[in-house]
């Protein structure tokens, strides 16, 4: 299985990646607007040459052209950017025809995918396909229809099913690989599987609220640019450089289409603020009481500290302290978990790295039991309302 999985270097988990986890620094990072603007284009549209994987190896451009109509694309979590669509186009096209998907790719309307569409013998033909950071770390607001609307960069696409998408590749049809890919489910991906051969997917994390968060990933391996490079090169198949002696990786490309773009990409990610809780989505009186529980009886603030709600700037935590499944930590370089920043936590269930907590109440119940906090039902409810307000 490990040999087969080496073929797969897929998808942004810039993803998996970018679930930052650090205490904010003393000095706030100032962002260069020009660099942020460049990074926005990179985040949304730059494949870093990963067509060498998606097209040349996985042959997914042929799969899309022959079998993936818009209805199918939406069913596996792909999103459509309504703001680039000509007026009325959705009312006039056949959403059950793969040719319509090619039209959407030509319009640059499929979030996170870049297709080279050329006219061959009088017909639009998908010549190549690549993926960008936005595939996993953007969604849409569903303002036109489910899966169709305005972009929401930085929001984890928890509808995306990377395993199903990969399972369509002619290069990945052996049964062992199919079993792994189809076991992941929507909103999950394993960014280590093609390295260690183990199967333990994690939920795709959001890419917002990361400014002044020094570490990235659920296990805090390194900076955001470090993880962007790891994911781009080892997962997306980018033509870039990635070196980490700890992992035994020394991957070089000439030309390097990635490294010089990392500062701009990071700047754009740092510009993405966590979304504020919608008005009326929580009980403000209960949230006020819940803040007291958070900082006192619940002892949450001992780890979720500072304005970033994380202590990962100073420490990581062994699995037995956290009380969640230790597998991911055991596969990581740190052997520990980071404390996840909480801003915008209302927006991205399920929770914990493996999605084992469906709701925030499940999270509270977990720690109430694991740490023997002795919270009363009313205190747990108030704490949930406070978390929903962040």
Automatic annotation (TrEMBL):
Question: Keywords, A to Z?
Answer: Heme, Iron, Metal-binding
**Which residue intervals define the domain Cytochrome c in the entry?**
285-390
InterPro entries attached here? Cyt_c-like_dom, Cyt_c-like_dom_sf, Cytochrome_c_Peroxidase/MauG
Q: What is this protein called?
A: Cytochrome c domain-containing protein
Which species?
Colwellia demingiae
Q: Which GO terms describe its molecular function?
A: cytochrome-c peroxidase activity; electron transfer activity; heme binding; metal ion binding
């Amino acid at each position: 299985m490990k040999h087969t999985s080496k073929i797969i270097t897929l998808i942004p988990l810039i993803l998996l990646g970018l679930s930052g986890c650090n205490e904010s620094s003393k000095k706030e990072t100032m962002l260069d607007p020009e660099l942020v603007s460049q990074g926005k284009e990179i985040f949304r549209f730059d494949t870093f040459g990963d067509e060498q994987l998606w097209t040349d190896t996985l042959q997914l451009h042929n799969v899309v052209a022959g079998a993936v109509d818009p209805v199918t694309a939406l069913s596996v979590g792909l999103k459509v950017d309504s703001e680039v669509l000509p007026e009325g186009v959705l009312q006039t096209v056949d959403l059950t025809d793969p040719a319509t998907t090619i039209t959407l790719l030509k319009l640059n309307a499929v979030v996170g995918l870049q297709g080279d569409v050329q006219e061959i013998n009088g017909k639009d033909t998908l010549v190549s396909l690549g993926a960008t950071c936005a595939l996993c770390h953007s969604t849409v607001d569903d303002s036109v229809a489910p899966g169709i609307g305005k972009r929401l960069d930085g929001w984890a696409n928890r509808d995306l099913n990377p395993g199903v998408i990969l399972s369509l590749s002619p290069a990945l049809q052996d049964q062992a690989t199919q079993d792994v890919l189809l076991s992941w489910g929507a909103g999950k991906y394993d960014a280590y599987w093609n390295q260690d051969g183990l199967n333990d997917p994690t939920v795709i994390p959001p890419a917002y609220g990361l400014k002044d968060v020094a570490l990235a990933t659920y296990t805090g391996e390194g900076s955001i640019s470090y993880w962007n490079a790891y994911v781009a090169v080892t997962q997306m198949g980018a033509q870039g450089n990635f070196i980490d002696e700890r992992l035994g990786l020394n991957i070089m490309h000439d030309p390097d289409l990635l490294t010089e773009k990392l500062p701009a990409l990071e700047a754009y990610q740092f510009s993405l603020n966590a979304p504020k809780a919608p008005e009326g989505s929580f009980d403000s009186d209960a949230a006020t009481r819940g803040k007291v529980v958070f900082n006192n009886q619940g002892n949450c603030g001992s780890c979720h500290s500072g304005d970033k709600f994380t202590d990962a700037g100073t420490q990581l935590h062994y699995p037995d302290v956290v009380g969640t499944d230790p597998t991911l930590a055991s596969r990581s370089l740190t052997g520990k978990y980071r404390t996840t920043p909480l801003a915008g936590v209302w927006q991205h269930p399920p929770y914990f790295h493996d999605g084992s907590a469906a709701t925030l109440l499940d999270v509270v119940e977990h720690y109430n039991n694991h740490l023997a906090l002795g919270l009363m039902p009313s205190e747990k409810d108030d704490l949930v309302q406070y978390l929903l307000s962040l």
